[in-house]
Amino acid sequence: MTPSTTGSAQALLEELRTVGSDLPGLDTQVPASQIWADRRLHYRLVSPLNRRKFTVIVVGTGLAGAGAAAALGELGYNVESFTFHDAPRRAHSVAAQGGINAARARTVDNDSVARFVKDTVKGGDFRGREADAWRLAEESVRVIDHMNAIGAPFAREYGGQLATRSFGGVQVSRTYYTRGQTGQQLQVAAAQALLRQVSTGQVNLHTRTEMLDLIVADGRAQGIVVRDLVTGKISAVTGDAVVLATGGYGNVYYRSTLAKNSNVTAAFRAHRRGALFANPCFIQFHPTALPVSSEWQSKTTLMSESLRNDGRIWVPVQPGDDRAPNDIPEDERDYYLERRYPAFGNLTPRDVASRAARTEIDAGRGVGPLKNSVYLDFRDAIERLGKKVIAERYGNLFEMYSDATGEDPYKEPMRIAPGAHFAMGGLWSDYDMMTSVPGLFVGGEAGWGYHGANRLGANSLLSACVDGWFTLPYSVPNYLAPLLGKRKLSVDDDAVRAAVAEAEAGVQALINIGGTQGPERFHRRLGDLLYAKCGVTRSAEGLVEGLEGIRALREEFWTDLRVQGRPDGFNQELERAGRVADYLDMAELMCLDALDRDESCGAHFRDEHQTEGGEAQRDDAHWLFASAWERTASDDAAAPGPRYVRHQEHLEFPSVPPETRDYR
Length: 664
Hints:
The protein is an alpha+beta fold. It is built from 18 helices and 21 strands. The strands form 5 sheets. Strands 1-21-20-12-18 form a 5-stranded mixed sheet. Helix 5 packs across helix 12 and helix 15 runs parallel beside helix 17 (572-596). InterPro entries: FAD-dep_OxRdtase_2_FAD-bd, FAD/NAD-bd_sf, Fum_R/Succ_DH_flav-like_C_sf, Fum_Rdtase/Succ_DH_flav-like_C, SdhA/FrdA/AprA, Succ_DH/Fum_Rdt_flav_su, Succ_DH/fumarate_Rdtase_cat_sf.
């Protein structure tokens, strides 16, 4: 920490957190490349005739949730599936446009499973669990074949083989895609598989239903409390295990690339019930989001990273250059990623590309009406390949850009800027995807293990599919097997009644505040604060200011929130209020984690810790671990804010020894 901020930062850390115990690491005697096979071999099994005796609750119907529910239903388990959408296919997985990675090595470019692991671990700046990256790589082959088999229309070469393209952070072509609609097409296929199980009766689908709390009884997760978003009724559903596949928390920044309804509530309510939250400050800012064009804009729009295959990113050499982009000659353009990182060029990892863009914008070379963006130019690609080829590869993305901006990207460069996007942090889980609460499992972006401090492009859809189709259907039965013969928790149990009553009281408390400001206003102010203090770059001084600002905003929220309408019916303002309440606590934990982690790594870039060349400077001697946070106090009059205990899972990299990332 810098001398001017050490005192205040340290005092705030001592007030908000203590350092707790180390978490047990993965205890195995086999090489990293064999851990998953060995684990599966020793998992306990549930026989087909006994599977109908168990009920598994799956919250979320994106790729991870739909896959887990469909697979468990196909195996014969009773599944209760929940989504707050009106149909499972509307889950946010549809928005991941660019592609899905797989180490199938069908292109002769020297790719392999081991290279996939190396790229993923290095891309995450050595802050993810290496064993998880091996599982991700191994199962990636089955994922592509499986999704192809259930209907995903992957792009193909002229001869019929599946086509691939490159993504950031790698020098091989391993990304499979369906034009610019990969997430949408994969989600449609997964939703259809889920609905097939609904039609057989193995899966009971609950739409327009939001999880409000986790039911923990006898030391394990045994159900959830939900609210019907149409009628307002709050009720409980019990089961033998719970899977949370509820996505990430990037919307804490208000303006993000996520769907407006994406939120952290399910995960954070589980955190309040004892589930550790890992690496909350690891937030990815996507370098190819559309820039904010108005103060009142409610979100940003994502343009796929796949565009960086053929688009070239540049800014004018001269700060403040107001000429139209096509009027700026070649020698007055700075293709800064190609200049700074010649080996990877425009396909540098997202954290590197976002910081580089922010540097150029802050130096006065930003473009557009608000001078807050950089150019992504397809002029050279169109001249080289022809407009028809570019349209075949990215046509729907070009149409999306044109609809959003009124500009023609075939004729003039796109304008892009970093935008809050993906959460690498999430509920801590062990290698079996089970959280610190026995019986509570996590999948997809709601978890933490694969991506470290920066996610490589096209690993998001992959990790969700691997969790849903090829991990949880093995690990959940391993947990269930010893429970054979135990009765499912009754909805009349005291623990269930208490959880429902607490959820009802929480909803009523929001209504009763009776203030003057709606939840949207608080959310917008929180987002502006986070972008300024815990954004693409952070500092100890800024994080202290951010924490103080969040705590003041939270106090104002609980005294001046206005929620119109009644709790017993359709009330979207009430929904938003509950989510913003969780965002305020989530934001505090993010800034606390960012202040505590006194180093730079991946997307967590502390100004105090950078090389002479402006790159992230890790501190492996002190921070080679994942931070897993335990919440130890609730908000009350005596203690105005929660207190946290930071536990550590120390990370080992036997296959990919830590090194300084270099993309030059």
